[in-house]
């Protein structure tokens, strides 16, 4: 199992660390993970945040952005709606996803403020890529991303044949 005590990055870089206990099924695994902390050696230069709201985020996505087929709504917003739209660079979806993710933070911003941020961001393609990367690395999103990638590869393979 990898063990990384430090990380150095450039301005604008992000890094996601997954904290786990060994063995994962140890009786105190949850307590060990909960007690683990990460800090920056200089808070003025870099910040560290703990992201533990993945399932809540997906639940909120399913409420706000459900997959609709006919008159029925399905709680498959992430896999059937959000991921394909993000991969298609849909800025409305990007704004909604970031606004929904922000709802779990202590300081929240409005959808209008998120829209303004997206309108002003220098590299919007990089922002899309970062959001997709975060979804792919999160427990709540990685299986949906993996399944979508697999289906896209299969569809691409069928087109070639």
Helix and strand layout, with pairings?
Elements: H1 29-35, H2 54-64, E1 67-69, E2 72-74, H3 77-87, H4 91-102, H5 111-120, H6 124-137, H7 142-160
Antiparallel strand pairs: 1-2
Helix pairs in contact: 3-7, 4-5, 6-7
What is this structure, in a nutshell?
The chain is mostly helical and 161 residues long. A two-stranded antiparallel sheet has the order 1-2.
Give descriptors for this structure.
161 residues; mainly alpha
Describe what this molecule looks like in 3D.
Helix content is 52%, strand content 4%. The protein is built from seven helices and two strands. It has helices spanning 29-35, 54-64, 77-87, 91-102, 111-120, 124-137, 142-160, and strands at residues 67-69, 72-74. Strands 1-2 form a two-stranded antiparallel ribbon. Helix 4 (91-102) packs across helix 5 (111-120). The chain starts with 28 loop residues before the first helix and ends with a helix.
What is the terminal-to-terminal distance? 40 Å
- List the helices and strands in order: HHEEHHHHH
**C-alpha-based Rg, rounded:** 18 Å
Summarize the amount of helix as a percent range.
Answer: 40-55%
Characterize the main sheet.
2 strands, antiparallel
Q: How many helix segments?
A: 7
């Amino acid at each position: 199992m990898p063990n990384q005590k430090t990380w150095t990055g450039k301005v604008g870089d992000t890094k996601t660390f997954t904290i786990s206990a060994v063995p994962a099924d140890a009786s105190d695994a949850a307590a060990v993970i909960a007690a683990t902390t990460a800090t920056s050696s200089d808070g003025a230069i870099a910040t560290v945040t703990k992201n533990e709201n993945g399932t809540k985020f997906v639940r909120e996505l399913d409420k706000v952005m459900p997959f609709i087929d006919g008159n029925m709504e399905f709680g498959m917003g992430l896999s059937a709606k959000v991921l394909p739209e993000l991969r298609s660079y849909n800025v409305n979806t990007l704004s909604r996803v970031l606004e929904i993710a922000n709802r779990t933070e202590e300081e929240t911003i409005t959808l209008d403020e998120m829209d303004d941020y997206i309108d002003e961001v220098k590299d919007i393609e990089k922002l899309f890529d970062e959001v997709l990367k975060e979804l792919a690395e999160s427990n709540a999103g990685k299986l949906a991303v993996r399944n979508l990638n697999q289906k896209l590869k299969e569809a691409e393979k069928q087109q070639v044949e």
